[in-house]
Amino acid sequence: MRKSNMEVHVNFLAGTSIEDACTEANAYAVKNNLAIVRFDFNGISCAISQRCDVLKACEKFHEALKEGSERKFFVE
Fold first, then answer.
1. Helices 54-65 and 18-31 meet at what angle, rounded to 10?
2. Nearest-angstrom CA–CA distance, 56 and 47
3. How far apart are CA 25 and CA 52, in angstroms?
4. Which residues, other chains included, contact 25 with Cβ-Cβ below 8 Å and sequence gap of 6+?
5. Pairing with 21, which of 3, 12, 57, 65 sits 20 to 30 Å away (CA)?
6. How far apart are the first and last CA of the chain?
7. Which has the closest alpha carbon to 57: 30, 17, 10?
8. Which helix (H) or strand (E) holds 39?
9. pLDDT at 12
10. What is the pLDDT of residue 39?
């Protein structure tokens, strides 16, 4: 099955953890055969693919969130 080139932007409710957001975004990408699911979380733009490693995505998020970090976007 060919992966779609489509990208979708989603929103999460307040109180959602970054771990849950990444897990849900990954599941949504797989279920809907999407290339990327994007969302903003605490000022960081996140892009999650079907092949996302959720633990790595969370690490990248926390690294981008650190004070002084110039990175405000990550892809996993």
1. 130
2. 12
3. 9
4. 10, 37, 39, 46, 48, 52
5. 3
6. 21
7. 17
8. strand 36-41
9. 93
10. 94
- In the prediction, which pLDDT does 33 show? 92
Query: What is the reported pTM?
Result: 0.84
- pLDDT digits over 5-49, tens only? 777 889 999 999 999 999 999 999 999 999 999 999 988 999 999
Q: How far is CA 15 from CA 21, 35, 41, 58, 62, in A?
A: 10, 26, 11, 16, 17
Q: What are phi and psi of 11, to 5 degrees?
A: -125, 150
Under 8 Å between Cβ of 44 and 60: no
From residue 44, alpha-carbon distances to 55, 58, 73 in Å are: 16, 12, 6
Q: Residue with structure tokens 């892009």?
A: 47
